[in-house]
Task: inverse folding
């Protein structure tokens, strides 16, 4: 049996050890659930495991150069199926579910994800996993592997399935045909159906160390990076390789600017401007915006309080924050985490934001001055 070595997965030593040992013993489970924060390498691990299982190299897999590995990298291997949430709109849909144009978009995004598993897909609307796609994958799985020894199905964001898609998937997951491996991924373990969790072997992806991310950047980033640029992105990304790359590719992100603006308006208690901002962020077409801004809000506060890096002077000066002690910063982090949880539980976004802003003002200015 060749040995399974993860070449591009950053960190996650325990996960690597568990999967390599299972591969070596011929005891890979028929279903795994990889859970952990976005950008920690779940998809990277899934793609490399799939490549490894299908690879034809006799000594070490995946080799990244045999015919099978090349097919996986071009997303042209008939035994690898990848499913993830998509936002299909307009002529991407038809009466059967997904139109030819929709399938084209899916193929394009699939290739992108398999090639750069740490990349972030940007959605313009609320994405989900269409049942037509899940049915298509089921057919392929029941038909059996064509070229390799196994069929491998990667389902990214398995928590974002509607009931119909989940039921379709469960039909196969409950009694999987031989030689099938399901790799289900999620960054919201709490939102995954218990029937899925109970059928999978669970593997947890933790945060990746700053030094490991920094080392990996030279091979993952598409451009030359200065030392300072690299340090700042790593610090800011808090243990997520995907987020580090995203920040490097989008240096002054819209989210950074909006989060800084939100913090400034809360400090100035500018309700009029805040009301405008709440309207914009909670608009339906801005799916994901609230959560992104809240996450960046945490970074802003963290950077300012820990003074580990330069304050974003353009928007707010660090002297504004001199009165903010650690307990109050902790309160702000808690406010953010609660608001993110409420948004993820599909709470009413504008109501969540109003409550969040009131809580932040209480924390910054003290209880007596809030809510006139
Ligand atoms: Zn190979």
Result:
């Amino acid at each position: 049996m060749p040995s399974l070595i993860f070449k591009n997965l950053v960190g996650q030593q325990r996960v690597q050890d568990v999967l390599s040992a299972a591969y070596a013993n011929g005891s890979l489970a028929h279903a795994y659930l990889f859970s952990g924060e976005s950008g920690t390498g779940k998809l990277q691990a899934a793609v490399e495991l799939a490549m490894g299982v299908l690879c034809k190299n006799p000594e070490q897999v995946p080799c990244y150069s045999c015919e099978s590995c090349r097919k996986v990298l071009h997303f042209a291997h008939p035994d690898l199926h990848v499913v993830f949430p998509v936002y299909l709109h307009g002529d991407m849909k038809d009466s059967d579910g997904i139109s030819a144009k929709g399938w084209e978009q899916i193929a394009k995004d699939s290739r992108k994800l398999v090639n750069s598993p740490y990349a972030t897909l940007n959605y313009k609307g609320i994405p989900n996993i269409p049942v037509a796609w899940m049915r298509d994958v089921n057919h392929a799985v029941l038909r059996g592997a064509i070229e390799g020894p196994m069929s491998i199905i990667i389902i990214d964001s398995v928590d974002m399935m509607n009931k119909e898609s989940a039921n379709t998937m469960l039909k196969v997951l409950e009694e999987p045909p031989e030689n099938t491996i399901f790799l289900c991924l999620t960054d919201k373990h709490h939102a995954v159906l218990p029937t899925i969790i109970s059928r999978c072997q669970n593997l947890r992806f933790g945060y990746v160390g700053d030094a490991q991310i920094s080392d990996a950047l030279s091979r993952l980033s598409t451009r030359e990076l200065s030392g300072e640029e690299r340090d700042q992105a790593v610090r800011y990304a808090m243990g997520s390789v995907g987020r580090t790359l995203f920040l490097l590719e989008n240096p002054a992100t819209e989210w950074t600017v909006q989060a800084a603006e939100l913090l400034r308006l809360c400090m100035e208690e500018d309700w009029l401007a805040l009301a405008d901002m709440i309207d914009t962020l909670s608009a339906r077409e801005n799916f994901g915006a609230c959560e992104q801004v809240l996450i960046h809000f945490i970074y802003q506060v963290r950077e300012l309080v820990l003074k580990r890096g330069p304050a974003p002077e353009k928007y707010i000066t660090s002297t504004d924050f001199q009165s903010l002690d650690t307990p109050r910063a902790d309160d702000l982090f808690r406010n953010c985490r609660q608001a993110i949880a409420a948004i993820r539980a599909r709470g009413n976004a504008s109501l969540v934001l109003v409550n969040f802003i009131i809580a932040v003002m209480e924390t910054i200015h003290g209880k007596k001055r809030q809510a006139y």
The mean pLDDT is 86.
